[in-house]
Amino acid sequence: MCVIDREPRDLNQAERTILTTLASVVMDQLEVRLAARRVAELEESERQMGEQLRQANAALAESEEHFRDLFDEAPIAYVHEGLDSRFIRVNRTAMRILGIKPQEVTGTYGKSFVPDTPEAQLRVRQALESIGRGTDTSGVMLELRRKDDGKPVWIQWWSRPDPSGAYTRTMFIDITDRVLMEQEQARLETENAYLQEEIRSEHNFAEIVGNSPALTEVLRKVDQVARAGSTALIVGETGTGKELVARAIHDRSPRGCRPLVKVNCASISAGLVESELFGHVKGAFTGALTNRAGRFAVADGGTIFLDEVGELPLDMQVKLLRVLQEQEFEPVGSSKTIRVDVRVIAATNRDLQDAVRTGRFRADLYYRLSVVPIEVPPLRARSSDIRQLVMFFLSRYSQRLGKSVSSVSEEAMDRLVRYGWPGNVRELQNVIERAVVLSRGPVLELDRELGLAPLAGNEAVEAVSEGPAKFVTLEQVERDHIVRILDRTGWVIEGLEGAARLLELHPNTLRSRMGKLGIKRTRHEPR
Fold first, then answer.
1. What superfamily would CATH give domain 183-375?
2. Lowest pLDDT segment from 85-94, 390-399, 473-482
3. Cross-strand bridge partners of residue 82
4. What distances in angstroms separate CA 30 from CA 3, 26, 45, 333, 404, one per listed residue?
5. Could you count the other beta carbons within 10 Å of the beta carbon of residue 510?
6. Which of 146, 161, 251, 419 could form an SS bridge with 99, CB 3.0 to 4.6 Å?
7. pTM of the model
8. 163 phi and psi, to 5 degrees?
């Protein structure tokens, strides 16, 4: 509504009141319209904000679902666990590796998967202490046991505390195949080292030499025992070739393609016998810096030859008996039982029956070892083989030393045949080697200083004739032989011309044998 007056004039009081009222009404209408517009704008803004919030919630839900899929389906194991190792959240990969089901997650503790071995417990303790200090733990290798079947599983483990400090976020990968491959590689390397050691070592024979009735009977038993696969006990004097017989049994057996691992029980100190035979884990004792496989583990699938088994301490005899009966053992410092498939061949130059009677050897172990006893005859009982052995060793050392010695004088051969050989084939081998070294021509001559005095009359034959009264004990034969060699070397034990080299023994082993046999130097001899 509008009032127009072209001529200016003064308004009376009534007109002024009407116009003022009209102006107030117009202004109120304008304010109402502005307020309505602002309300409409606010409502539109609220609607847009609601739509944006709805879209944000939908995006968040989608993101959470995507994250959940990534967490659950990730090829790497993820675990959220409390500071006490209680599981909070676990993905499918972790459950598969650890052998647990979804309903078993609640109430499961990570520490429960760690085996009760010193090395495994130490590693997990160090890892948990690192987490407790609030530091990252990265790339630690842990050995665990699956919950469903108890099988070992190795993982590489990373863990980081959550910023809130309430739990840790753990990630790990399964490295079991890699660890098993490394263990197999280590076993093969150890086995190869033993085989290389055997190849480098000096053996009594390259093959069995001789055709005497006594040796033929031994070879007949070797063929029978090899096929049977039974435990065998080889007895005989020092230097008769017991190790060679053990090799022949192994080579002719179905295990011939697997290693023959040799252990000289007399050359290992009493405190290390268990570790040498059964191995040890890292930290089992002072100096055990790494895990080490024992000889039984290396011989798995093959044969172990326990030479001088009569020297084993009584406490080790108990453990050896268990391996023979159960085919299982625990390495030193470990509670993990290891099963093996090993054939045992033992050898001794002692009278084990006498040792059983005096309590120095367990009767049950003796009966378990001597399933098939094989007695290797001394050289004096197969004197018809001496000529063949002489020519065999002559050929070997002539080639090895680069000499053209091709025959033996009749006088020298006669001395060799008539000698009693208390040191048996090993002594004969050493005598021929020395004679070849000192030989100046193509015909082998013996140095008079060798002292190969023949036995008086028919003593050489009578020593092996029928009747137990004609025999001396193995200890007495061994003692006399060692004393004779010591006299020959002027009681020098070590060095190229020492008694230990002639006897093919380690100097400490020879000193130990001298102590056990009561051998002492009674007079001063030039050294």
1. P-loop containing nucleotide triphosphate hydrolases (3.40.50.300)
2. 473-482
3. 167
4. 19, 6, 23, 96, 136
5. 23
6. 146
7. 0.54
8. -55, -30
DSSP, residue by residue, 448-485: GGG--PBPSTTHHHHTTSSSGGG---HHHHHHHHHHHH
Length of the chain: 527
* β-strand partners of 87: 81
Q: Is the pLDDT of residue 146 over 80?
A: yes
Report the half-sphere exposure of 388 (CA within 13 A, side-chain side): 13
Q: CA-to-CA distance for 251 and 379, rounded, in angstroms?
A: 24
**Please, are residues 453 and 419 in contact by the beta-carbon 8 Å criterion?**
yes
Return the H-helix or E-strand segment holding 150: none
In what helix (H) or strand (E) does residue 167 lie, and over which residues does it extend? strand 167-174
Quick one: pLDDT band at residue 456, thresholds 50, 70, 90?
Answer: very low
Which of 205-209, 234-238, 342-346 has the weakest average pLDDT? 205-209
Helix (H) or strand (E) holding 146: none
Can you tell me whether residue 159 is helix, strand or coil? strand
Amino acid at residue number 473:
T
Q: Does domain 386-517 have CATH number 1.10.8.60?
A: yes
Candidate CATH numbers 3.30.450.20, 2.60.40.10, 3.75.10.10, 3.90.226.10; the one for domain 77-174: 3.30.450.20
Do residues 463 and 450 make contact, with C-beta atoms less than 8 angstroms apart?
no
Which residue type is seen at 374? I
Q: How far apart are CA 320 and CA 278, in angstroms?
A: 10
